[in-house]
Predict the structure.
Amino acid sequence: MKKAKCLSIVRLLVPVVIVTMVSGCITVVNPSAGSTTDIPEETPSQEIEPAFTTYTDNVTGFSISYPSGWERVPQESLGFGELVAFWDYEEGKGFPPYMSIKNEQLAEEMSLDTYSTLAQQAGTIEAGLAFISSEEFSVNGERALKHYYTFSADGIDTKMMQVYLIEGQTVWIINFMSVPEAFDSVEPTFNDIAASFRLSGSSEPSTPSEIPSPEFVTYTDETNGFAISYPQNWQSVPQDLLTGRELIAFWDITQEDDIPTYLSVTSEQVSMEDVNVYYQASQEAIETQADGSYVFVSEGEEIINGVPAVKHIFTLSDIAFIHIYLLDGQTGWIINMWTSPDSFGELEPTLNEIASSFELLP
């Protein structure tokens, strides 16, 4: 299914039910015009997989993890009231699994059970959903409720799961969708995503010293044992474009520069026991292979989350690089970042934040 087609129908497939208490009435908002979203297919998961990424919104005050292969839905394509959405869209495949988060303010305090009942009534009576069942759920030790529905729009049948939580007078709704025939296989992943939801307890943006930025997301690789944060508007580089020992890479292809800003992480087994020796050997290899285009800029020792590191800045063929070298036992790590020389001064603080977020997992 074409992405444009998915975007045109997702908005219809995400009926917006906003429950308020106004003289004891239910108000349902289900606008016919608005933005859209998209969703791809996913493999089942029994637990949070190694390749999950954590999205953190420090302004609204929540975080949630989702499969790293999923894409973030563009802001202009979100459904009514949605704060963020992700899907696993793949060209040529059918309508894909999808998740989104929204919240709403209640006019007065309400129990979770009361809200659940009102949401069910509003969804079935006003929004055209077919209610299937409700069950208990737990999110970070807090009680939540799940509703299951089916819905159809523009010839597309979907099965939906909505998870409701209440904090004070704020209701949080985590919405999941899939075609009915794929739902059972993706439901374990939906449950993993929902269980990862966390409230930060503060709507105030954090400073860069607390986390890299309010608009960073964290990529966690449990298999290779590391985590790193990057700007949330950057995209994952397709696996078939990775080179050498790159484990993962992200880039910003929205820039006007011909050269995108790029980040990758590599690891290798080495015989050195000193990070400076590791760095010197790597620098010499780069200089030897550069055919005279290598220009040294600076070097310096750092500590990144308790691990000794060396930072190496250089230019090569009209590209400005930062390499961060770390050594953990016999495993060498390189954080490779590059951009155009014209953009380097402006972007260097962001690149430094990315590097300082790197963490080896226990």
Summary: Residues 11-50, 202-214 have pLDDT under 50 and may be disordered. Helices lie at 3-13, 112-125, 180-195, 275-289, 341-357.
